[in-house]
Design goal:
The protein is of the alpha/beta class. A 6-stranded mixed sheet has the order 1-5-4-7-3-8, sandwiched between helices. A two-stranded antiparallel sheet has the order 2-6. Strand 4 and strand 5 form a beta hairpin. Helix 1 packs antiparallel against helix 2. The longest helix is centred in the last third of the chain and has 18 residues. The radius of gyration is 18 Å and the shape is globular. About 35% of the residues are buried.
């Protein structure tokens, strides 16, 4: 499960400095960097933001339960940040406890999805937004985070239903953003640089999981 990091991954507000960064950077010979920054921020201006449908989900069949606004950052991915990674987590607790902490503004972290042992999928943050789940700002901005109910030292928690549902979810994400289905782009929390987490742990069957993801018709090659 992602750790507290709200201060390190806080929102960037649009302001006069952001709007002027193009001219300033161009004067310094960094016009490309300036355009990239402006492309990520333009939609925050009043009247520009894309409309949203309350309760909408990105994965068909998922149940929407909103995480606290303090545990994610509003964005417009993939237009402002490209998505090229799925990060696999384990909750180190029950499904109910994960939902509770993701709704707690003091927790400072949450993932986009939680997959229950019975295969039920709950979405708590839209994929277009940046969830604080990886403990690394750059990885948060480029990834979708999926939590799985259970404990890393209990292989029995990783049920057939969980693997199957999570594989369908990951395959759909990969298809939406043209993410290669391989272990460079589908990784565990433990593989994120700078993290002290060990999930999904040695009992997560990566070979089985990747095989299931690739079997889903919508998965990218």
């Amino acid at each position: 499960m992602g750790e507290k990091q709200a201060s390190a991954d806080g929102d960037r507000r649009i302001g006069r400095r952001a709007l002027l960064i193009g001219g300033t950077a161009a004067a310094l010979g960094s016009a490309v960097l300036a355009r990239d920054e402006l492309a990520r921020l333009w939609w925050r201006a009043p009247g520009v933001e894309k409309p949203r449908v309350q309760g909408a989900v990105d994965f068909r069949g998922a149940q929407w339960v909103a995480a606290s606004d303090a545990n994610w950052r509003r964005a417009d991915r993939p237009d402002d940040y490209g998505i090229d990674m799925v990060i696999i987590h384990v909750t180190q607790g029950s499904f109910a406890s994960a939902v509770k902490v993701f709704q707690d503004p003091g927790h400072g972290a949450a993932a986009h999805y939680i997959v229950r042992k019975d295969g039920h999928v709950t979405q708590m943050i839209r994929e277009l937004d940046v969830a604080y789940h990886a403990g690394n700002r750059a990885y948060n901005e480029r990834s979708v985070g999926i939590e799985h109910e259970g404990f890393v030292d209990r292989p029995e928690d990783f049920t057939d239903e969980m693997y199957a549902a999570s594989a369908r979810l990951t395959a759909g994400i990969c298809a939406r953003y043209a993410i290669p289905v391989d272990r460079e782009h589908i990784i565990g929390h433990v593989e994120v640089p700078g993290t002290d987490h060990t999930d999904p742990g040695e009992h997560w069957d990566w070979e089985r999981y990747m095989r299931l993801v690739r079997k889903v018709p919508s998965a990218s090659a």
